[in-house]
Specification:
The protein is an alpha+beta fold. Helix content is 62%, strand content 14%.
Length: 617
């Protein structure tokens, strides 16, 4: 073999290997590009499947909401429809998938045409869904709009499936291209290996000859290396011991960190479940940390409150609150407390506690706010109960002191009336004394009834019969006054366990109040001079009740007086026409019977009194 041929052989073998390697590398890159296109196609297929699932879920949820008539469920599932619309836009214009990964737009004409048709159907689907939400009458299963909604849903599913089939076919075509390219790469690399093997064999043959010459030198070098290796082994053992010690230290630190994280999570959960609003405030009044209760405030957002000014958590605040306990605590270095109302009617007690460094400076302030509305309500209720008890004791004492003298006055006045001549001034004066004395006696009886602890016997009675007897007592008077009474009795038996005299007293008190209101608004006969009485059976918490509603179209009660109508001695009537005890006594009687008395009124329009009494099961 000539030296020239050997030299040529040494060059052409690497050259061929290099060319084949470049070709195979290009095919690998091409394969990589096709695989990337496959991943994009996969994302498109997943997006279309997600769109089908989302619209199907929305369709099912809307059908269920229309079936149950629950309008709140429609509002809950509307975000699913918005998600489907975003996916359709992402398929056409590019965007993000449901997982948040980038989703390039569909460029190929077949894909894009299907995607645009799908977006149009989805827009029509969304428009019909909004109509169903806006029009409760149309949101009925089987209505024309519902059938149109189902038809568009079927077209939408078919269009999505068609786009999904086209995308899957594209993926299959790309798989075929990938298989062909991989086969070509394998074949090319087989040639590279074969040519390289021949070249390596000849090269290794020459190297073997050189190694025989170097073997002797290697043996000598090995002896010297052996000595050095012993030194390195000893150093390696020492290094391994140090590594093991370091690993033990890291394990200990890791275990401590895991325990600390567990305690931190437990502590965080504990703070979040506390009913108080707890936040850490910096000197510039920014929130450094807040528990979950703070995020539940109406003015807070779902985002992290860190960095927000504390006063922005309260409505209509752009500056620090007046007499802010946090500001005061930063100034005084002491714990401060402030009770302030919230616009929704709740009362909050805010306590600010300074956090002091070792050098005495105030680093931050811990703010703890507690909703004390219920506590204040309980205290007010206790004061009201004590007030009513005091009034009852006072009323009983006054009534007993007045009762005997007023009976004597009435008797003497009646004697004078009997002995005086008819139509004389003496007869008129005596008659007036008797009438006024009787009115005082009525007031005294009302006071005694209000103060008396009611322990009368109760029996099974009919509400309808008690109401009929009550109306019989005053129907003639109401007819004279031009008041039309409309009675709608319960369709089912309305028996209750009650004291009939007390229930009749309640009915008479409320009917007389309605008479007065109607006569004040309509002094003469009028079409709206009507008292409507309606009875019905209801259930509250599974317990049957008889509800009696007395509805008059009189003067009504001013809104600022509604919270006082149940108070003793409070009356909307002029002085001398009302004692202020009727409604208070009626409320007490109904409450003693386990019922409820409520008043609804609009000034100048109507007053509606609702009496709920436990019915016999």
């Amino acid at each position: 073999m000539t030296p020239g041929w050997v030299l040529a052989y040494q060059y052409w073998v690497p050259t061929v290997v290099l060319i084949l390697g470049v070709i195979s590398t290009g095919m690998v890159l091409w394969t990589h590009h096709i695989i990337e296109q496959q991943w994009v196609s996969f994302d498109h297929v997943k997006a279309v499947m997600g769109l089908r699932i989302t619209t199907a879920k929305f369709h099912l949820g809307l059908e269920e909401a229309m079936t149950t008539g629950n309008r709140e469920d429609i509002e809950k599932i509307l975000p699913d429809l918005d998600t489907a619309v975003n996916l359709s836009h992402a398929l056409i214009y590019g965007g993000e998938s449901e997982r948040g990964t980038p989703l390039p737009p569909l460029v190929a004409p077949p894909f894009r045409q299907h995607a645009e048709n799908l977006a149009a159907l989805l827009g029509e689907f969304r428009e019909i869904a909004l109509k169903l939400r806006a029009d409760p009458k149309a949101a009925v299963v089987g209505s024309p709009l519902d059938k149109q909604f189902d038809a568009v849903f079927e077209q939408l599913q078919e269009g999505a499936r068609a786009l999904e089939i086209v995308a899957e076919k594209s993926v299959a075509d790309e798989y075929a291209k990938t298989d062909h390219l991989l086969f070509a790469v394998v074949f090319t690399w087989a040639l590279v290996v074969a040519i390289s093997t021949v070249g390596f064999y000849r090269r290794e043959r020459r190297r073997w000859r050189a190694e025989l010459a170097l073997e002797k030198a290697y043996d000598e070098t090995e002896q010297r290396v052996q000595a050095r290796t012993t030194d390195l082994a000893e150093a390696n053992i020492q290094l391994q011991e140090e590594i093991a010690e370091r690993r033990r230290t890291e394990d200990t630190l890791r275990q401590s960190e895991e325990r600390f994280r567990g305690l931190s999570v437990q502590f965080r959960i504990l703070l979040d479940t506390m009913p108080d609003r707890i936040s850490l405030i910096s000197r510039d009044l920014k929130v450094l940390w807040a528990n979950g209760r703070t995020g539940a405030l109406p003015c807070a957002t779902d985002e992290d409150l860190t960095g927000e000014y504390c006063y922005t958590l309260w409505p209509n605040r752009s500056t620090p609150c007046d007499a802010c306990p946090v500001v005061t605590s930063f100034s005084t270095g002491k714990a401060e407390t402030l009770i302030s109302p919230y616009p929704n009617g709740t009362q909050w007690e805010t306590r600010a506690v300074p956090i002091v460094r070792d050098d005495g400076t105030i680093e931050n302030v811990l703010e703890v706010a507690t909703d004390i509305t219920e506590k204040l309500s309980r205290e007010a209720e206790k004061m009201r109960a004590a007030h009513l008890a005091s009034i009852g004791e006072l009323a009983a004492g006054v009534a007993h002191e007045i009762n005997n003298p007023i009976n004597g006055i009435i008797n003497y006045a009646q004697i004078l009336c009997n002995k005086s001549v008819a139509a004389s001034a003496e007869r008129d004066i005596a008659t007036r004394i008797v009438n006024e004395g009787s009115r005082i006696g009525g007031i005294v009886r009302g006071l005694l009834t209000f103060a008396r602890e009611r322990k009368e016997d109760k029996a099974l009675v009919s509400v309808t019969e008690i109401l009929s007897e009550s109306l019989a007592l005053i129907r003639s008077q109401m007819n004279k006054e031009g008041i039309n009474v409309l009675v709608d009795e319960p369709a089912h038996p309305s028996e209750i366990v009650a004291n009939p005299q007390q229930i009749q007293q309640v009915f008479l008190n409320i009917i007389n109040n309605a008479r007065y209101a109607l006569n004040q608004k309509y002094p003469t006969a009028h079409d709206d001079k009507v008292l409507e009485i309606r009875g019905e059976r209801i259930a509250v918490g599974g317990v049957p009740y008889v509800r009696l509603t007395l509805h008059d179209r009189g003067d009504g009660i001013p809104a600022h007086l509604m919270d006082k109508v149940m108070e003793p001695f409070f009356s909307t009537k002029p002085s001398g026409l009302g004692t202020g005890l009727g409604l208070s006594i009626s409320h007490g009687i109904v409450t003693d019977h386990g019922g409820r008395l409520a008043v609804e009124s609009v000034e100048g329009k109507f007053t509606k009194v609702l009496i709920d009494l436990p019915a016999r099961g």
